[in-house]
Amino acid sequence: MEQTIRFSLNNRPVSVTTDVDRALLWVLRTDLKLTGAKFGCGLGQCGVCTVIINSEAVRSCQYRVKDVEGKEVLTIEGLARNGTLHPLQKAFMEHSAVQCGFCTPGMILEGYSMLAKNVEPSRDEIIAMMDRHLCRCGTYPRIVDAVQTAASELKGGKR
Amino acid sequence: MITGNENLLDRRDFVKLLGPGIYFLFSVDELLQGQQQGMFGRYPEDFNAYLRIAENGQVTCYSGKVELGQGVIASLAQMLAEELEVSYDSVSMVLGDTKLCPWDPGTNGSRSIKNFGPALRAAGAEAREVLIEMASEYLKVPVDRLVASEGVVRDKSDPAKSVAYGMIAKGKTIERHLEKKPALKEPADFKVCGRSLPRVDFLDKVTGKAKFSGDIVLDNMLHGKVLRPPAHGAKLKAVDVSAAKEIEGIRVLQDQDFVGVVHSHPDVAEKALALIKADYELPPPEANDETIFDRILKTEARESVVEEKGDLAQGDKKAVHKFEASYCTPYVAHAATETHSAVVRVDGESATAWVGTQRPFGADATIARAIGLQSDNVRVITPYVGGGYGGKSQIGQAVQAARLSKMTGRPVQVVWTREEEFFYDTFQPAAVVKISSGLDASNRITFWDYHVLFAGNRSSECIYDVPNVRTVSRGSSFGGEGPHPFGTGAWRGPGSNTNIFARESHIDMMAAKIGADPLEFRLANLADERMVRVLKAAAEKFGWETAKFPSGRGYGMVCLDYLDTYVVAMAEVEADKESGRIRVERIVCAQDMGPIINPEGARMQIEGGIIMGLGYCLTEEIHFNGGEIKDLNYASYRIPRFSWIPEIETVLVENHDVAPSGCGEPPIVGMGALIANALYDATGVRVQRLPLTPERILANA
């Protein structure tokens, strides 16, 4: 059913009129032209479509757009503020925690959601949280390092 | 893909289609003259095909290679900057654009640095010398008094006398060439190569700006979906598209058994496709994932002798221990996180295609054939590719998009679903290797009789010092010929994953028979000093101590050469004989790939190869019945995850006596034998078929 849905997207109010049973991923990618969230499996198995909704990392391919009404959505495009990269983005670059880069937005946003809840995650906690995300290039150890580095920078109060 | 500094070329030449960082060239001018040369089959000789120097000093480097995550965006820029004598930061890469870049056979086989590197470096070196000559005339200073550095030619005795490359080249084709081509630099003189310089794609990739094929949006573009049969070889008997047509905005397009739908939203197109009812005639299944190996053994095909020396019968006579064994590897999927994606815009007699491909040159012809155009009139542009591993040499998705674009007269994007990705994948072929060998009383290998069936012959040669050897390869690994019920193709380290699994498992089995330590046994049978050096480097890092074999420690090792790169890996695993579970604790990998262009990039590739390789060791195999593929998502086809990662240490063995060779594939091809050998050392259980599942381990216990 077509309906108008209003929500905050990367700190700006947006409204979109569409069939509200559609997946948020496709509404973001086509109607709202934000392609940072990727399509990987459409089944919630790989994590490349991850976005943040009200501070929680969510699989946008499994999330209907009607459920986003009134909420705050953050995508990878909204993570850097005023041209300054988020510590996670910097840490992914510093640790070369990127190869093909297709899983990277989802990985960074999962890390963002985790660090919002746990400012000092152990290596094992990071691995347990991130285990829902797949990287076929095999950058896993570097991603763990990057999340740890970002955690210590965030804890130091730089952001 | 054009990336890096945005100001390098005259903006009038460009139409900005996308966000910052990537531009696509539309108007084609004299810039292309150099690139047009040397098409089809070899790298061009004219250095203009590889580089262009703008008046402001910015250098654009053109290569038909593509960026799939392996980092050629840095390593190629480094090689050009090194020979041309410009700063790394001044070089921007244009990759995988068939109109702008010199012909290339494709990004595969870890051959970008190895094969394209020399051509690119030669171009940079010749351009440098030509620019010095031109500077000599401009400055009226003899050539032997001039030196080039950081894009400026200076008088050695009067550094105030100088001229920048940009002032000489002015963004134009340089008509002058040298009769005698200058020598390439020695690795000892490298200033830009050999350093871990940063990759310019990282910023795009951490901010979501990086454009992959599925992120390309053109005006008036539609999203297409094409009907997929339930099995390879199935024939469409009847189709009912009426329900799909009911959906607002859906167009159904049909050309015999090609049935597609298009819509402005990809998810709506997919929903409509699901409403199409189709009846198929299924061929009787000829094999499944259990019977395939028997079918491979029974399938006749052309045999080629890879190597032959000595006399097997003589070796057999001298042997006191004899061994005979077979090794099997299954079909394995590429399973890149980015599914095959493309956008094609057909404009009358020409077309432009944005394709996630490893072979832009080749994709142009394939697309042209599918829609009846001249190959020259199809331009393929390669945005960032979200992982390939061999699977993106095939471009079925672009053919679908091209057909739909031709039928609708509008640009069409096709992004495969995960199910389509698994179904249409060209798997690493299932294969069998049969080996007979013998040992004499002093533990030397006396003969080696090796037959590889349908994996291909790469890495099938015996690297050990054996007097009597015969290596035979039957059938090809590509194209779904012979025993395969569906398409097969290159998978990161094609052929070698099977061949190294067989050879290095077999070597370990021979060592075990006589209770010899696997490291000592290999050293005793190796004559190649380069391999011995790499072996010792790995052993030192790992802390390998000699022990009676199997030792119960869970240690395994493998040594191999892959297209001139030498690799020795050692692993420690924990394995439980009761449950059949393996946990890989630690891997050390030493690699000699000649002079290293970007050490950080090399380490990333080695780590990635090891981690990806854990998948085909432990879980990955395609289940199927005839042409029906049963594994169509990541729930049943399990690939490595964060929780699997062992401690990984890499050792880069510097070697300036050979030319730079490849990095990304060599570390993965040893993984099967590495883990199988460690499993044996832990438990005494030898498994000769991958993957090493708990069921298979228990069955062999």
Report mean pLDDT of chain B, rounded to a whole number: 93
Described by the principal axes of the CA atoms, the overall outline of chain B is globular
* Number of beta strands of chain A: 5
Strand order of the largest sheet of chain B: 12-13-10-20-17-18-19
**Strand count of chain B:** 29
In percent terms, what proportion of residues of chain A is strand? 15-25%
Ends apart, CA distance between termini of chain B: 52 Å
The helix count of chain B comes to: 18
Oligomer: heterodimer
Percent helix of chain B: 25-40%
CATH superfamily of the largest domain in chain B: Aldehyde oxidase/xanthine dehydrogenase, molybdopterin binding domain
In the CATH hierarchy, the third-tier topology of the largest domain in chain B is known as Aldehyde Oxidoreductase, domain 4
Overall body shape of chain A: globular
Largest inter-chain contact set = A-B, 57 and 60 residues
Largest sheet of chain B: 7 strands, mixed
Task: Give, in order, the helices and strands of chain A.
Answer: EEHEEEHHHH
Kindly provide the name of the CATH class of the largest domain in chain B: Alpha Beta
Can you describe what's shown?
The complex is a heterodimer of chains A (159) and B (701). Helices cover 34% and strands 17% of the residues of chain A. Chain A is α+β, with helices and mostly antiparallel strands and 159 residues long. In chain A, helix 2 packs across helix 5 and helix 3 crosses helix 5. The mean pLDDT of chain A is 96. Chain B folds into 3 domains: 2-207, 2-Layer Sandwich (Aldehyde Oxidoreductase, domain 4); 213-282 and 340-415, Aldehyde Oxidoreductase, domain 4 (2-Layer Sandwich), CATH 3.30.365; 292-331 and 427-700, Aldehyde Oxidoreductase, domain 4. Chain B has 18 helices and 29 strands. In chain B, strands 12-13-10-20-17-18-19 form a 7-stranded mixed sheet, with helices on both faces. In chain B, helix 2 (72-84) packs parallel to helix 3 (112-139) and helix 16 packs across helix 17. The chains are: A alpha+beta (159), B alpha+beta (701). Chains A and B meet through helix 1, helix 2, helix 3, helix 4 and helix 5 of A and helix 5, helix 7 and helix 16 of B.
